[in-house]
Amino acid sequence: MHVFHADVNNGVIIRRIIKVRPQLRGDDDDIYSPQYMPIGPYHLDISSQEIEKEKMRSVRLLQSLSDEAGLRALMEKLEPLARKCYAHGVGDMMSEQFTSMLLNDGCYLLLFFVDYVSSDDRFATCDDDEAPVAAVSRNTLVRDTVFLIENQIPLVVLQRLHEHVTGATTSVVDCIAGPVQVLLQKMFFISKKPRPVPPQPCSNLLHLVHAYFEPTVVPVPGKKSNGRRRRHRSTGRWRRATEYLRYANVWFRVREFTDDVASSVLDVQLGRGGTVWIPRLRVDSNTWTVLRNLMALEEQEEKRPVTAYCLFMSHVACTSEDVELLRRAGIVDHFLSNDEQAAQGFAELCRGVVMEVDDGDRNYLRTMWHELEERCDSRAQRLMGWFRHGQNVWVAMAVLVALILLACQVIQTLYAAAGRP
Cα–Cα distance between 364 and 357 in angstroms, integer? Predict the structure, then answer.
């Protein structure tokens, strides 16, 4: 698959804001399209007079803190660079329409994150009923403005507006990173330990979100693996959680977040003794939207940790039996009607996704797949898993009794043979 490498234009890193390819989008248009608030040029058709009035209020407020003509002139100056940030369909937009879009959306997003009057933490203090548009919940606005890959404007636009309003060269990401962390913590995607601003420049809000999903755990050294076997086996599909349990004697345990350790939901780890530690995943109405948009973003990146994680979860939790197992372990915490609905969501999570799973640089879980496969190949582990986790307890007990009787018979035969003259 083609990977887009970032361009540098006058010191500004450009990652194109793309439209999701049809094979990935499929019938899931709602996952990639805003429900209410369009940002950028790709979904202007859903805008309304109410939305535009809300954006114009943001423009007027920031103009009152700086100067009226300066903001528009700034957007006109940024127009050539901003156009380069979009991969599709902005060539036919008139200059006035494009700069107006940048100004309106940029001012709205700035005030969505930063209170230039009282300096309150907007995400920590604002409840749903305090949303800028009373008829729309803040959750919907957050979903539309933060998590959708097609609903973005370049961060350089927010940076220049921020500098113009404050009269300083401070980074707007420093103002936005805190609220984004709070948001991801409330959604249980990362732990509560504060993290520094990502060292690598981010191109848009979703790119900033992606920076906080980076896995942080270090693989635990286990039994020395059969390197020759691994070299001759290509990384393949994950097995179901119940299959690992029964046929490889694998245990699944929840990795709890702690407030003093920076952790991510991607921190999956195979520990000693065949225990797979997985952070809790809170599954609600927005979970699939966040993960699928991050996977679409990663199609432009060299490393694809979110995609690797989603492939893992979509396979180990693809049936209601598997979801029940993971739910009882505290790994899956869903708010859907039943386990079957959750399993269907996991099974369809990676539909249309393409990734080179045998590439260790892209698939951070590649080594764990091979270690688990070696456990599946082990007759001892398969036997132990069958005895400890097999569904038919009576059959297992019968086999155990038969083995004991066989052992007694062998011992009796040996004693008899030893007693002969």
Answer: 9
- The verdict on 415 and 375 lying in the same domain is no
Order across the sheet with 269-270: list the strands: 251-255, 275-279, 269-270
Query: What six digits make up the tokens of 293?
Result: 């948009």
276 by DSSP, 3-state: which?
Answer: strand
Check whether residue 135 and residue 50 sit in a common domain: yes
On the 0-12 / 13-18 / 19+ scale of CB atoms within 10 A, 17 is buried
Q: What is the largest CA-CA distance in the chain?
A: 115
Dihedral sign for Cα 173, 179, 182, 184, please.
negative
Q: What is the CA radius of gyration of the chain?
A: 27
Task: Provide the whole-model pTM.
Answer: 0.86
pLDDT in tens, 282-340: 999 899 999 999 999 999 998 999 999 999 999 999 999 999 999 999 999 999 999 99
Give the β-pairing of 269-270 and 7-9. unpaired
Return the SS3 of 28: coil
Domain count, the chain: 3
